[in-house]
């Protein structure tokens, strides 16, 4: 009996299928990985913005993760929106009992449309309790600033590593406000990896359209999928970025608002 590799996402639901849990699951599936899911929050949003969300009680989140880890051989975990300080604490406590599973931490703070998805307490506890457990943390630039507590972009990587993250991938996809008009002349996205051996590596990707939704989730989920499939971190990042490049190039707007990466794209690792 063939059993595919399994990855678990711990994330919030986006009913439109662009971001969050749905982005993770479609990415896992596209990359040949069976996706298990633990829901942290139920957002009410369309492709323009988040209207509201409910956070699941921490006990119910713990139940989902524990029953899954007791049953399935989960080879990697991706963490997205957690929704409450209690949920952060709960996930940290469970992960402490599973020290060998690689963890991709996407420190979700703000939705593509601008709504806040994390309180200050969530950010503070994520820094304290989850950063030290992450195989890699994948903040975009505003998230890197908030997590590291300062605005000096040259020191974000080193600060986050000093706070305990083994590897830090700072993603540069946040488009400037006038990006739509100037898309052709914009520089590429630069992602920077700060590695646990102290070295740094820059990656360039084609620029996104300005109003993109679910790209952070998709990249982090793709890294988790390749880690689950046994890649080392850097090859996993490179393959995940290759997948993203294709998904962005063929991205589409499924509704009246933002674009989403095309996770159905034909090329996949
Ligand atoms: O893209 C960040 C994100 C993560 N998780 C959920 C979201 C969003 C953005 O909207 O809704 C559930």
TrEMBL record:
Q: Does the keyword Lyase apply?
A: no
What are the BP-aspect GO terms? thiamine biosynthetic process; thiamine diphosphate biosynthetic process
Q: Where is the Pyridoxamine kinase/Phosphomethylpyrimidine kinase domain?
A: 14-258
- Gene3D superfamilies, sorted: 3.40.1190.20
Which cellular component terms (GO) are annotated to the entry? Answer: cytosol
Which EC class, in a word? Answer: transferase
- Pfam families, sorted: Phos_pyr_kin
Has UniProt tagged this entry with the keyword Translocase? no
Q: Which UniProt keywords apply?
A: Kinase, Transferase
Pathway annotation from the record = Cofactor biosynthesis; thiamine diphosphate biosynthesis
Q: Which domain of life, per UniProt? A: Bacteria
Give EC number(s), comma-separated. 2.7.1.49
Q: What is this protein called?
A: hydroxymethylpyrimidine kinase
What species is given as this protein's source?
Answer: Thioalkalivibrio nitratireducens (strain DSM 14787 / UNIQEM 213 / ALEN2)
